[in-house]
Structure prediction request, 636 residues.
Amino acid sequence: MQQLLNQSVLILGLGDSGLAMARWCVRCGAQVQVVDTRAEPPHLAALRSELPQVTFVHGAFDAALLQGSEDGHGIRAVFKSPGLSPESVASVWQAAQAAGLWIGTELTLFAQALSDLQITAAYHPKVLAITGTNGKTTVTSLTGQLLERAGLRVAIAGNIGPTLLDTLSQALDVAAVQEAEAAEKAKAEQDELDAAQAEEAKVQEALAAAQAASVLAEAKLQASVDAALAAADHAQLSMTLTQHTESPKGEAVASPDAAENADVNAEQPRTEEAAADTPFDVELPQLVPPPPPPVDHPYLPQVWVLELSSFQLDGVTNFEPTAGAVLNLTQDHLDWHGDMRAYAAAKARIFGQHGLLVLNREDLGVMNMLPEPVRVKLQKPQVRAHVTFGGDLPQRPGDYGIETINGMTWLVRALEADETRRRRKDDAEEIHIQRLMPADALRIRGRHNALNALAALALAGSTQASLAPMLFGLREYRGEPHRVESVTVLNDVEYFDDSKGTNVGATVAALQGLGVDRRLVVILGGDGKGQDFSPLQTPITHYARGVVLIGRDAPALREVLQDCGVPLVDAATLPDAVLQASRMAQARDAVLLSPACASLDMFRNYAHRAEVFVNAVQALADEAGQALDGTQGVGV
Prediction:
């Protein structure tokens, strides 16, 4: 990126993205300064060991940071880590905007890099982007697997990890190595071909010399024979002439040359008549062949599949994906965004100005992201290109949905009934429902995962990849860790780890997905992040046998759920919660850890919470004298 060469760059925050931006900017030739309010951020040691030329500053995100860098040059660009809220960086951010500096995030740099590579490397990949309150990681991972199954080179990055810029850097480095290896191999093959051709030339030269010598010898021999024959002929001719000269009747003898000339004159062609029969020579214009279609870069990924959070999307203006999906929209991160309107606006940036919209038609907040049709005089209103998915039957060509026939549920998509027939303006769209696969064939369970599968198919289908291998990939997908993941079946009760369910929407989806087939004992609680817990009331009433409450916001959850008609039990620790849940559960029930809350009030992170849960289930199995049945790690 020439825009960063020899420029002074300020990076706010040293998290995963902050370190990735520092690496990228140094790679592009910038002088980099990183600022963090923490004296010892997690990646400080890595920054100092990998990038000793980068300056680290411990301090506030203040406008004074823009005054200059150590080399005396003013700051030209400011990039912030996505975890930093607009409020926390407002001072330096607003000052940078006022000064006309280049400002952005890791996604800004990634989008600019892809734009530059289109020019410098003729690189034109497809970019598929996924966001939503819940299901992002599952859909991102599944979309990548479908495309890989279809035979494409795929890079998966973003919120799912690794970071956007680290993944791009690695792809460029690998491509450079592969290109160098290919060039070296081609050179070796050419050298081998040249050597073989040189050896062949020597052989041909020797053969030619031998043939020339043979021809010369034959010529000499033939010359000797011809000379002898000529001498004999001359002697014979002399005798014949003598005999003719002495003819007794004195008759004249015709000259052989005269007869030959007469024959030649008789055989002269009629050149003028022949010329008259020759067609007129017309010079035709040269035909210009059409330009060849763009060729894929032979080594870089053909498709990028990106999981993007609202933090990463906030404020980005230059991101233009091939297709973007918003899976759902429920309350989350309101402490960061301020309100639902700002949260939804950040999510909606995933579509760019021209990308295909992939929308959950069951979510009104998501469908409101579809722009109003553009009205042009004397023309039909132009609707932004979009595809929807949902748990009902699709009603529009290109949309995806679910159909139940004779008790069997199918994943389906709608196709235009007759694509060759031109419809009149007011004609209704006629559709044909194509059954893709039975929902029971999915390894991931629950209605919410069927919707995730439809979203992944819609995204992957936008690349024109072959459908058949993608359906095989869909059957093979086993899910992601800590996302409604089956741990084991113990005493005819199945235990599920949904520790990644850190918000109300995720837990509602898990309850609705699993509760169709069984009753649930649910473990809820933790740091609620100021969420409204009331959406839990209906699914708890319908699907729960009981609820065990843990963590800081257990009292708030109890207040919301006390009228649901199910037992509510408090537990001081997660192992105690697992024990109490096991006592409440009956045969063929399930115990579900889906806290609807963040974990940091009791654990290092959601993965640590999951580890404690699995260990508690293991303790129950040990006490009962049973071994875990090995389903841990199989996503559902």
Q: What stands out?
A: Confidence is low (pLDDT under 50) at residues 249-254, 630-636. Residues 485-622 form a domain with the Protein-Tyrosine Phosphatase; Chain A fold (CATH 3.90.190.20). Residues 247 and 555 are 151 Å apart (CA to CA). The first strand starts at residue 8 and ends at 12.
